[in-house]
User: Fold this.
Amino acid sequence: MTANDLPVIAAVDGSSHSWEALDWAAQEAVRRGLPLLIVHVRPLTRRTDEESGLRESEELLDRAVLRTSTSAPGLATSTLAPLDFPSAALTSLSRDASMVVVGSRGLGGFRSLMIGSNSLATASMARCPVVVVHSGRTDEDEAEAAQTFPDVVAGVSADESSEAVLDFAFAAAASRPGARLRLVHGWTMFSSILSGGPVFDREAAAGAAERTLAELTAGLLEKYPLVDVVREPVSGSASRTLVTASATAALTVVGRRRGGESLGLGLSPVAQTTVTHALGPVAVVPC
Assistant:
């Protein structure tokens, strides 16, 4: 199996959030022409419970396969039921996956929390992009989203760490015919000074941020000529723009630090805010 046909992993636990994540993962696998691997991580329990736990896992996975065969007939699908802690198992499996898709909360999640601990830990530690499928939209939101241009929105830093984010975002937009790619870059006068840009002229600093975005995307515009790209330099933090955009976006893409996981620094402040408060699917890309 090559890097181009690594599966989309969908994590299911029987919660409504995980079923929504499964549906999203199946459609994304179809869009990208990839196989789907449905994973139910069996919790570590006493040995006497192992047989019944395995039987319940098989029943759950059978339901998941049936659901997927209905929504995405013809999709190559397989299942796996490892015995481990959820985030540990998914992080291990992420080494051989194109992406991991999880619900925002599982069966044990508190209703007051926007995102569960397993979802957040997986997004912070996985070796491939992790998509957290939020279900915060109301029926009104869904109706509005259906009438809105299917944007893919990406938070972009003005350095080499944005390469993986941009690659993923452009591919996501290209797989959605008619989708527009909005590139959001937060800048401040301080960041302008650090990068050697204008010091006191805000208009000049905004122009410098626009040029930086253009330089970062030049090569990808040649690779994806059909993708409609909109560059959005934002004065201040990009978090508010990304969270607002997520309500009607097909997908919001943010990056996280690679190598900071052991120190609890897997997510940048922008990524942490976006994945926690978003109202639609968020892809967290190691960078």
In short: The first helix runs from residue 16 to 32. Strands lie at 8-11, 36-39, 77-80, 99-103, 130-133, 152-155, 180-187, 228-235, 251-256, 282-286. The domain at 139-286 is CATH 3.40.50.12370 (Rossmann fold). The chain has two domains: 3-133, 139-286.
